[in-house]
């Protein structure tokens, strides 16, 4: 009898488990975006024709730079000349930033010429004020990536020389770096335009580069300096996990200032995830900081337009309330082009670069499903902002909120444009060859195999060809994405070569090339290999 009862209870329990499985997957709310996906039909191989077209565009830019501005930091295709960041001479801004793209695209002759320039001409003994973050992500990151891909020692030697010259930025009371460095004098300088405060994103976007350099050299002075910054930020961070865009180097305290995923905020969040990935998911604290920030972001910054339910990431701006003698946060429904890195980053955060691609929906937690949906929707929004007269996206998009005039007929707009007079332009209306949307399309393609992402990237590439290409060589920024006769700004940003064209090329490559489970891309698209964290870190 007892045995029978036990069997009966067992059956009841089994039924209960089957039907009321209390798993994280059974929670409602996030429907699979993959529909009836037939995984056997996914094809992650290269599209050779599209890759050739993008390589030809790169050649069009590179050959012109070589002809007109070889060795200069910046290139101006219209006047066919170059300029340097400081008057005492160049630091290889364009050449070094482009080295790994040359290597990846198989432009061997050009790579060798660039390599020889680095070996014989490049010097960092330049007297002048350089932005430490920009030099780190473009030049140090470029050298490290070139070294990894080619194994040519010259790149590592130059990287060490540069990092040694950058190190004084960390010698502050708190360890939070100053913004500028005189590379010749090895003297760090505070940002006098911003009361000596440092940008949070700039302080926290040096870590992949400095840590990889330590890994290569086994000299942990770089690692420890970069990691100290993260310790200070973690201790001083707001309980929300989001961070204001300014921080004070003297005491490591955040300054009451804007909170955003755009300028001065963006790559802080990007590097939280990537630091965790770089050391093969060993440093859990960065995953936790990232997850915390994403949860608060969903609550405080993710908003939708009334008309089409279009998702965007708003900003928070502090406003002083005189009556209460305290700051309050005002929501600003604006999104920098820079924010568009986040769509792909959210997808990367869910998969951590590991297959299957796309992920099996039912194996994801609710938080992962939330991040995935937001990532895909944000990419959709970013692509939608390219729905302009030129097919290119503006520097800044503003979104309609409930109660705004025209909110039922307009989702987003560019501020400062005069419809009657399209030749009048605004800061927000420019497209300066930025990469973030194609960066996200590349990640989304790799992590899903959804052809739509390739199609969208191709359309953007065609718009770049049509409206930014200079007949005689090179590409420029344009001043108004909504004017097909737009004026141009005579500058070809170095990130066009290092990021925009590289991500477009990789969007059409076989996904085994620089596989996402083996690499992290620094914020300037320089691929760095993942590695196991060294055990002997504090040995100096
Ligand atoms: C790049 O230099 C980097 O991606 C940086 O993190 C942000 N801005 C530019 C490109 O837009």
UniProtKB/TrEMBL annotation:
Top EC class for this record: hydrolase
InterPro entries in the cross-refs: 6hp_glycosidase-like_sf, Glyco_hydro_47, Glycosyl_Hydrolase_47, Seven-hairpin_glycosidases
Domain of life from the UniProt record: Eukaryota
A single cellular component GO annotation: endoplasmic reticulum
Signal peptide positions (record): none
UniProt KW keywords: Calcium, Disulfide bond, Glycosidase, Hydrolase, Metal-binding
Active site: 134 (proton donor), 266, 395 (proton donor), 436
Keyword Calcium listed: yes
MF terms in GO: calcium ion binding; mannosyl-oligosaccharide 1,2-alpha-mannosidase activity
Record-level GO BP terms: carbohydrate metabolic process; ERAD pathway
Pathway(s) served: Protein modification; protein glycosylation
Reaction catalysed by this enzyme: N(4)-(alpha-D-Man-(1->2)-alpha-D-Man-(1->2)-alpha-D-Man-(1->3)-[alpha-D-Man-(1->3)-[alpha-D-Man-(1->2)-alpha-D-Man-(1->6)]-alpha-D-Man-(1->6)]-beta-D-Man-(1->4)-beta-D-GlcNAc-(1->4)-beta-D-GlcNAc)-L-asparaginyl-[protein] (N-glucan mannose isomer 8A1,2,3B1,3) + 3 H2O = N(4)-(alpha-D-Man-(1->3)-[alpha-D-Man-(1->3)-[alpha-D-Man-(1->6)]-alpha-D-Man-(1->6)]-beta-D-Man-(1->4)-beta-D-GlcNAc-(1->4)-beta-D-GlcNAc)-L-asparaginyl-[protein] (N-glucan mannose isomer 5A1,2) + 3 beta-D-mannose; N(4)-(alpha-D-Man-(1->2)-alpha-D-Man-(1->2)-alpha-D-Man-(1->3)-[alpha-D-Man-(1->2)-alpha-D-Man-(1->3)-[alpha-D-Man-(1->2)-alpha-D-Man-(1->6)]-alpha-D-Man-(1->6)]-beta-D-Man-(1->4)-beta-D-GlcNAc-(1->4)-beta-D-GlcNAc)-L-asparaginyl-[protein] (N-glucan mannose isomer 9A1,2,3B1,2,3) + 4 H2O = N(4)-(alpha-D-Man-(1->3)-[alpha-D-Man-(1->3)-[alpha-D-Man-(1->6)]-alpha-D-Man-(1->6)]-beta-D-Man-(1->4)-beta-D-GlcNAc-(1->4)-beta-D-GlcNAc)-L-asparaginyl-[protein] (N-glucan mannose isomer 5A1,2) + 4 beta-D-mannose
Annotated S-S bridges: 340-382
UniProt-listed Enzyme Commission number(s): 3.2.1.-
Presence of the UniProt keyword Transcription in the record: no
Cofactor(s) this protein requires: Ca(2+)
Binding positions (Ca(2+)): 523
Family: Belongs to the glycosyl hydrolase 47 family.
Protein name (database record): alpha-1,2-Mannosidase
Organism: Serendipita indica (strain DSM 11827) (Root endophyte fungus)
């Amino acid at each position: 009898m007892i045995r029978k009862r036990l069997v009966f209870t067992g059956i009841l329990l089994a039924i209960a488990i089957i039907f009321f499985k209390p798993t994280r997957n059974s929670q409602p709310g996030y429907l699979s975006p993959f529909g009836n996906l037939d995984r056997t039909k996914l094809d992650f191989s290269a599209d050779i024709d599209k890759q050739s077209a993008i390589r030809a565009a790169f050649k069009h830019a590179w050959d012109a730079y070589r002809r007109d501005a070889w060795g200069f930091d910046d290139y101006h295709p219209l006047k066919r000349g170059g300029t340097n960041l400081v008057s005492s001479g160049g630091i290889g801004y364009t050449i070094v930033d482009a080295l790994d793209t040359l290597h990846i695209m198989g432009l061997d002759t050009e790579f060798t010429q660039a390599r020889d320039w680095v070996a014989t001409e490049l010097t960092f003994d330049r007297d002048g004020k350089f932005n430490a973050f920009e030099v780190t992500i473009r030049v140090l990151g470029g050298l490290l990536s070139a070294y990894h891909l080619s194994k040519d020692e010259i790149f590592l030697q130059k990287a060490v020389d540069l990092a040694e010259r950058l190190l004084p930025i960390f010698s502050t009371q708190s360890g939070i770096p100053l913004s500028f460095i005189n590379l010749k004098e090895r003297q760090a300088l505070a940002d006098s335009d911003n009361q000596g405060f440092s940008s949070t994103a700039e302080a926290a976007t040096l870590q992949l580069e400095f840590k990889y350099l330590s890994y290569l050299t086994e000299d942990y002075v770089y690692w420890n300096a970069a990691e100290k910054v993260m310790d200070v930020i973690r201790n001083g961070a707001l309980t929300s996990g989001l961070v204001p865009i300014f921080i004070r180097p003297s005491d490591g305290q955040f300054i009451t200032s804007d909170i955003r995923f755009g300028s001065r905020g963006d790559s802080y969040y990007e590097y939280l995830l990537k630091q965790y990935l770089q050391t093969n998911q060993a440093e859990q604290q960065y995953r936790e900081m990232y997850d915390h920030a994403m949860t608060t972001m969903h609550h405080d910054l993710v908003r939708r337009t009334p008309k089409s339910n279009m998702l965007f990431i708003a900003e928070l701006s502090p406003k002083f309330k005189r009556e209460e003698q305290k700051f309050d946060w005002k929501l600003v429904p604006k999104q920098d082009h820079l924010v568009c890195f986040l769509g792909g980053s959210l997808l990367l955060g869910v998969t951590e670069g590991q297959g299957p691609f796309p992920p099996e929906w039912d194996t994801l937690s609710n938080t992962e499903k939330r991040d995935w949906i937001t990532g895909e929707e944000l990419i959709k929004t970013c692509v939608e902002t390219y729905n302009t007269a030129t097919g290119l996206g503006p520097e800044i998009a503003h979104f309609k909120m409930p109660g705004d005039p025209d909110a039922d007929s307009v989702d987003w707009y560019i501020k400062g444009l005069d419809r009657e007079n399209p030749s009048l332009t605004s800061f927000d209306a420019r497209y300066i060859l930025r990469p973030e949307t194609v960066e996200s399309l590349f990640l989304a393609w790799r992590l899903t195999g959804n052809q739509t992402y390739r199609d969208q990237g191709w359309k953007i590439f065609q718009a770049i060809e049509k409206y930014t290409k200079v007949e005689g060589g090179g590409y420029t920024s344009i001043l108004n994405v909504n004017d097909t006769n737009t004026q141009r700004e005579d500058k070809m940003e170095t990130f066009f070569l290092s990021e925009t064209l590289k991500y477009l090329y990789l969007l059409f490559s076989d996904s085994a090339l620089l596989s996402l489970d083996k690499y992290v891309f620094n914020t300037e698209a320089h691929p760095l290999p993942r590695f196991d964290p060294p055990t002997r870190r504090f040995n100096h």
